[in-house]
UniProtKB/TrEMBL annotation:
<dbReference type="Pfam" id="PF00710">
    <property type="entry name" value="Asparaginase"/>
</dbReference>
<protein>
    <recommendedName>
        <fullName>asparaginase</fullName>
        <ecNumber>3.5.1.1</ecNumber>
    </recommendedName>
</protein>
<dbReference type="InterPro" id="IPR027473">
    <property type="entry name" value="L-asparaginase_C"/>
</dbReference>
<dbReference type="GO" id="GO:0004067">
    <property type="term" value="F:asparaginase activity"/>
</dbReference>
<feature type="domain" description="L-asparaginase N-terminal">
    <location>
        <begin position="4"/>
        <end position="192"/>
    </location>
</feature>
<dbReference type="Pfam" id="PF17763">
    <property type="entry name" value="Asparaginase_C"/>
</dbReference>
<dbReference type="InterPro" id="IPR020827">
    <property type="entry name" value="Asparaginase/glutaminase_AS1"/>
</dbReference>
<feature type="active site" description="O-isoaspartyl threonine intermediate">
    <location>
        <position position="12"/>
    </location>
</feature>
<feature type="domain" description="Asparaginase/glutaminase C-terminal">
    <location>
        <begin position="208"/>
        <end position="322"/>
    </location>
</feature>
<keyword id="KW-0378">Hydrolase</keyword>
<dbReference type="InterPro" id="IPR036152">
    <property type="entry name" value="Asp/glu_Ase-like_sf"/>
</dbReference>
<dbReference type="InterPro" id="IPR037152">
    <property type="entry name" value="L-asparaginase_N_sf"/>
</dbReference>
<feature type="binding site">
    <location>
        <begin position="87"/>
        <end position="88"/>
    </location>
    <ligand>
        <name>substrate</name>
    </ligand>
</feature>
<dbReference type="InterPro" id="IPR027474">
    <property type="entry name" value="L-asparaginase_N"/>
</dbReference>
<dbReference type="InterPro" id="IPR040919">
    <property type="entry name" value="Asparaginase_C"/>
</dbReference>
<feature type="active site">
    <location>
        <position position="12"/>
    </location>
</feature>
<dbReference type="GO" id="GO:0006528">
    <property type="term" value="P:asparagine metabolic process"/>
</dbReference>
C-alpha cells in the first residue's frame, strides 16, 4: 500500500476566522487529513512543520521545509510527499523545493483558496488529489509538482493568477503538465529540470535578494538602499521584454561592479526576457552586467538567485549558474 507523508505548513487550507472575521492558519495537518475521503489503498502520515500564511514563508522557513522533506524521503517506504501551503507563495516554495529535489519520488504542493471553515472550501478536494498524485507511479521523475483545481503543474513556471478564484494557478508559458481527477492522474508533458542543487551546501543566512519594480519613474534610490542593506542579489521587475531606464542602468552597473548579482525579469506574464533596446532598455541592462531571467518571473527568479547565492556565494559562479539554468 503506497505511503504518503503530508507536511503541513498552514495557508488558507488551514485557516479559520477569529471573532473579528479575520483569518489565520489554525488547523494542523491531522485536522486537514481527517476531513478527507482518501483514495483507497493509500496510507497517509502527517507532520506539522509550520502553521503560517504563506506570505510569511521566508527563505529560512522554506529551507526548514526542504530539510524536513529530504529527511522524510530517506524512508524508502515513503512513495511521495504532499506539502500543504498557502497559495500566495506556492510559486516560490515549490520552485525552491524543486531546485534541491534529488529524488524520483514526487513532492506535491497544494492548498486552498477558500478557508477551512468555509462551507465550500476547495481544500479537501485539492488535498485528496495531491495525495493521489503523490502516490502515483506516473508522477515519478517529474520533480516538485503543484496539484490544484484538478490540474498538475511543474514547479517552475507556475504563477498565482487570481487573488481569490479557486482556479488560481497558471503556467503561462507551458500550461499544466496534466490532470488529476477521481483517483486517477494523466501526465501529458514532462518538465525541463536542471541538476539538483546540494541542499547540504545551502545556507540561507545572510542571503538577501530584493526585487525592484522598474516603472518609468524608477531611479537609483531603491537599488542603492537594497545594496546598503546588504543585498547580494537584485531582481529587476522590468517592463516589456526586460527594459528599465538610464538611471536604473547606471546604478545596475555600479552594483554589479561591487559584486551584487543583478537579474532582469519582467512584469509581463508570459514570454522570455530579451535584450533588444537601448536608452535604458534590455540591451543596456545586459551591457551593465544584468543577467536575463529567461522565462522566470520575478518571484521565481528571486528564488533561483537566492538558492545559488546560498550554495555558491561567489557572484561570478552565481551569475554563470543562473544563466545556465534559464532558457533564452
Ligand atoms: N489562499 C491562500 O492560501 C492565501 C493565503 N494568504 C496564504 O498564502 O497563505
Amino acid at each position: 500500500m503506497p505511503l504518503v507523508t503530508v507536511l503541513a505548513t498552514g495557508g488558507t487550507i488551514a485557516t479559520r476566522a477569529d471573532a473579528r472575521g479575520v483569518g489565520t492558519a489554525r488547523d494542523g495537518g491531522a485536522d486537514l487529513v481527517s476531513r478527507l475521503d482518501l483514495p483507497p489503498g493509500v496510507e497517509v502520515r502527517v507532520e506539522d512543520v509550520l502553521r503560517v500564511g504563506s506570505y510569511l514563508m521566508t527563505l529560512q522557513r522554506v529551507h526548514t521545509l526542504a530539510v524536513r522533506a529530504a529527511e522524510v524521503l530517506r524512508d524508502p517506504d515513503v512513495a511521495g510527499l504532499v506539502v500543504t501551503h498557502g497559495t500566495d507563495t506556492i510559486e516560490e516554495t515549490a520552485y525552491l523545493l524543486d531546485l534541491f529535489h534529488a529524488d524520483p519520488r514526487p513532492v506535491v504542493v497544494t492548498g486552498a483558496q477558500r478557508p477551512a471553515d468555509a462551507p465550500d472550501s476547495d481544500g479537501p478536494r485539492n488535498l485528496t488529489e495531491a495525495v493521489t498524485v503523490a502516490a502515483s507511479e506516473g508522477a515519478r521523475g517529474l520533480g516538485v509538482l503543484v496539484a490544484f483545481g484538478g490540474r498538475v503543474f511543474a514547479a517552475r513556471g507556475i504563477r498565482k493568477g487570481h487573488t481569490l478564484a479557486a482556479d488560481t494557478f497558471t503556467a503561462p508559458d507551458t500550461g499544466p503538465l496534466g490532470w488529476v481527477s477521481t483517483g486517477r492522474i494523466g501526465i501529458e508533458s514532462r518538465p525541463v529540470r536542471g541538476p539538483a542543487l546540494d541542499l547540504a551546501a545551502f545556507d540561507p543566512a545572510g542571503v538577501r535578494v530584493d526585487v525592484l519594480a522598474c516603472h518609468p519613474d524608477a531611479d537609483a534610490v531603491a537599488l542603492r538602499a537594497f545594496a546598503d542593506a546588504g543585498a547580494r542579489g537584485i531582481v529587476l521587475e522590468a517592463t516589456g521584454a526586460g527594459n528599465a531606464n538610464p538611471a536604473v542602468v547606471a546604478a545596475v552597473g555600479e552594483l554589479v561592479a561591487a559584486g551584487v548579482v543583478v537579474v532582469t525579469s519582467t512584469r509581463v506574464p508570459a514570454g522570455r526576457v530579451a535584450a533588444l533596446y537601448g536608452n535604458g532598455g534590455g540591451a543596456d541592462l545586459l551591457a551593465a552586467g544584468a543577467v536575463p531571467s529567461g522565462l522566470l518571473r520575478p518571484s521565481q527568479a528571486r528564488v533561483l538567485l537566492a538558492a545559488l547565492l546560498g550554495v555558491h556565494r561567489d557572484p561570478d559562479t552565481v551569475r554563470a549558474g543562473f544563466a545556465a539554468r534559464v532558457t533564452g
